[in-house]
Amino acid sequence: MINITATTTAHIPGLKQLLRTVELFPPEMLDEMISDYLQNNVSEELWLTALDEDQVMGFAYAVPEALTEGTYNLLAIGVLEEAAGQGIGSQMLQHVEDHLRSAQARLIIVESSGKDYYEDARQFYLSHGYEQEAVIREFWSAGDDKVIFTKYLQSAS
């Protein structure tokens, strides 16, 4: 049974191991990325870890978008390669959305690559009610577009 919980320092070794198997960002970047969240008990960042007993199976990372009201950017969601297709990513995404709704966030954005390699990721978001909002051509590099997805978490007032 998967347990999704707030990320703690005890999860760091498992997160680094997961990052070695997925191509989200280099594991050596994790310590700096998560330091404010772990040291600041009023951080608005969201780090969640999916556990099967004590094994890290997945994680999600979202941050408030600067200069906006209630907009969060889901920067990463990853699942161990051997656990792909078991619904862990969907559970993680639902937890992120539920948490952000309870925090009165109104909009979540996700940025992806337009490369063929990321087609499954783009389809994942579309299948979970996200809409493709924009494409910025050649953003990441020559031939690699940025694809932006959005989902409203609160109804418009």
Total strands = 7
Percentage of residues assigned to helices:
25-40%
Largest sheet: 7 strands, mixed
Mean pLDDT across the residues is 93
Explained architecture:
28% of the residues lie in helices and 37% in strands. The protein is α+β, with helices and mostly antiparallel strands. It has a single domain (2-152), classed as Gcn5-related N-acetyltransferase (GNAT) (Aminopeptidase). Strands 1-2-3-4-5-7-6 form a seven-stranded mixed sheet.
Question: What are the salient characteristics of this protein?
Answer:
single chain; 157 residues; alpha+beta; Aminopeptidase; 4 helices; 28% helix
In short:
By secondary structure, this protein is of the alpha+beta class. It contains four helices and seven strands; from the N terminus they run E-H-H-E-E-E-H-E-H-E-E.
Write the layout of secondary structure elements.
Blueprint: E1 2-6, H1 12-21, H2 30-39, E2 46-52, E3 55-64, E4 71-79, H3 88-102, E5 107-113, H4 119-127, E6 131-141, E7 144-152
Parallel strand pairs: 4-5
Antiparallel strand pairs: 1-2, 2-3, 3-4, 5-7, 6-7
